[in-house]
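Sequence in, structure out. Go.
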Amino acid sequence: MSRCILNRCGRTHRPVRASLPAPVLQRLSQRRNDKVDHPRPQLRRPQWLNLDGPWQAMLDDRADHHDPADVPFDRTIIVPFPPEAAASGLHDTGFRRRVWYRRVVGLDDDLLPGSDERLLLHFGAVNHRARVWINGHFAVEHKGGHSPFTIDVTRYLSSHSLEIIVQAEDDPHDMHKVRGKMDWELEPHSIWYPRTTGIWRTVWMEKVGHAHISRLRWTADVFTWQIRLDADIAHLPKNSTLNVVLRLGERVLVADRCLLTEDVLSRLFQLPDPGIDDARAHWMWSPESPQLIDAEITLHAEDGLVLDHVVSYTALRTVSVDGDRFLLNSRPYYLRMVLDQGYWRDSLMVASAEQLRHDVLLIKRLGFNGVRKHQKSEDPRWLYWCDVLGLCVWAEMPSAYGFSSATVHGVMEEWKELVERDISHPCIVAWVPTNESWGVPELMHDRRQVDFVRAMYHMTRALDGTRPVVGNDGWEMPCGDFVNIHDYHIDPEELYARYGKRENLPYTFEHVRPARRRLVIDGFNGLDKPLFLSEFGGIACMDQADTKGWGYSVARDGNELLARYRELMAAIHRCRALSGFCYTQLTDTFHEKNGLLTEDRVPKAPIEALAAATRGPDAHLHDWYVDPLGHSLLWREKHASSQPADLLDPGTHEDVRIALGQQLVDTAAAGGAPDDQPGTSGPPGPRVPLPVK
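Output:
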């Protein structure tokens, strides 16, 4: 038995395991020990080099240094943790304009490119503007602290070593750049968190052929039972061919070969349609049955020589809107989401692959089928686990806080890069480019700001016409495919009065002012759109002596938190006008104490009780994905697989914290520089399919 650590809770309970469909359990059983460390899960090659670990560093607080040759690298930092994080080995939370990084990488024969090969250096994210020098040569400048960039370093090679120097510039006081939840004050306050300066996502290298596959995009359509592949080929040779194989488990769905005449390929694959609902359901992706389709793509020269080979995956999944309902795979689907900030105590916005997987499992154990990742572009490995384990994701753009021409250029460019990065993940079911008028504070009065919000909406629709797009999440909506409302009223019956029946919505839209803001503006009606209560709750549960702790309301202990959570959820589930909800929030995050879990991912109340309230009385309506013929509960229980005892148990409450990068930290403390860490090869573990008829 383990004792809940929440103040005055006094409750003892065992870690609880969720009940999931047998096919999902089978997949989890195969994957629970996976080491999914590839930083780009949807375009993987067998060999890559992970450059995370100790780098030389210099904290250039006043931006005094400009020439990398003059920089005194006087300390060691553990990449990819920012200097503000304890896991970086520095834990320096002061203001700074720049951070300098240096690393020398030895290139063995396996990594040194030949005459027909290239060496690519990838940065997952560097906040906010990065300048990179390779072997003394300036190579690239990239603006945008959340999006990735790549450098072909082949031209700079002259020996078996590669010197990498990075200047990361990030003005802590700039309110016009994309910053998300990063605070502009010296110490975090209210709902803002410590800054994340410099490199904060994996740095890695891979060797590719001179001709290679540089981009993949997957699009599925369950109406036509087709999957489309868009691929970019770098340095395309004459008369080359591309082979594509799609598999559902061991069954080959597509084996295609085409002659490439241009360096951009668009190919439409017609899948064999099983026809009847029970077979179709087992092919499609949903949170209840997250079926994925594996892909292998091979580039051949005219003489048959293999020039490149990559592995990827996709899924049969379509999202759409039909009047006032949200549809998943052409069926109404009710979204039970939770707001997730994506922060950790010792590492801030950075997490290990195991921590990312652990969070996805916890969200599912709490009864949610979706998650809104708030003010952060999350690690692609987290999206991978949402794909594999089954969570619908609303992907959100981190905000700027001031409005200017620089804001417009910076936000739009970075958002385009993030949509491009994540567009093939089946878990993403909606895009959220703007939140609560952040970055457009005069939206009610400034035509330019209204036009900017509309431009973000329409640009996103143009980049991806397959997903709904939110105009301005929360209030002051001039456009959008949904109406999304943030309302933290503490009375469940008042929430029901506002959102319970569609006939009440005209009054609500016209007269209700959450946070004293109009809900819809600029002629946007919204009455015929799906309605989501996309933020509510926010009940804090904390020590009364905590003077900095923050929440929208306060529960005295875990018992009161559970009781109020049940009352809120019961009222929300009665609201037939809603297409779904998003509860605030998953975990405590610094001063915010309104999580269902503590900052260390410990439940504040019995997790099975929280999950029952989350699911509500109608969760069985989505059983179609695992039981399309509608068998009885007795039949399903009789035919369900037994669940491995340790499958969904992330650990006891005392052991739930996962040490982040401890091996790298220990190595740095010992004064050594570790060997370059090889990446994992091949697909990240076997994927077990659902039965296919």
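Check: The longest strand covers residues 212-221. Residues 510 and 518 are 8 Å apart (CA to CA).
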